[in-house]
Design a protein that fits this description.
Cytochrome Bc1 Complex, Chain D, domain 2, mainly alpha, binds heme C, globular
């Protein structure tokens, strides 16, 4: 009985707090699987999120050349990613944030839209070192 409660609390915490982003990628985050297929609908929804919230820093093609890039240089999302290139790593970066420039978007976009925007970003192109 107690173990069930502990399990339930653990699950709840796991759902609320995806693995923390880590330089080089987090093995825990890499286990998070993308439940949203990259359909045209998902890509279109992801594009809307990207244009509303991300383009100003990461630029139209994800190169990190958006005009509102203020402090740190926003990452080039078409290169090998410093926090790990798996979709789970990207998910943890977007949900948790990494810095005051790359904030957490957990309160601004739904889980589904987080995966939609990941699908959209991935559509910018595959490159060496970009693992699924
Ligand atoms: C105010 C500018 C800004 C905005 C807006 C912004 N980012 Fe970022 N982003 C950054 C910076 C700066 C970094 C590098 C952070 C670091 O090194 O800690 C980053 C890093 C990232 C990374 C990790 C890249 C890596 O190399 O591991 C991803 C993924 C990402 N952003 C996606 C997004 C998405 C998706 C959005 C929109 C929901 C977004 N960002 C909005 C500035 C921004």
């Amino acid at each position: 009985m107690l173990s069930h409660v502990v399990l339930a609390i653990g699950l709840l915490l796991a759902l609320q707090a995806p693995a923390a982003p880590r330089k080089g990628g987090s093995p825990e985050a890499a286990k998070i699987k993308n439940p949203v297929a990259a359909t045209p609908e998902s890509l279109a929804a992801g594009k809307r999120v990207y244009q509303r919230l991300c383009i100003r820093c990461h630029g139209a093609e994800g190169k990190g050349d958006g005009e509102a890039a203020v402090g740190e240089q926003p990452s080039d999302l078409t290169a090998k990613l410093q926090f790990g290139s798996s979709e789970g790593d990207m998910y943890s970066v977007i949900r948790r944030g990494t810095s005051k420039d790359m904030e957490s978007y957990a309160e601004r976009i739904s889980e589904t839209d987080t995966w939609n925007v990941i699908n959209y970003v991935r559509s910018f192109g595959r490159r060496p070192g970009f693992d699924r």
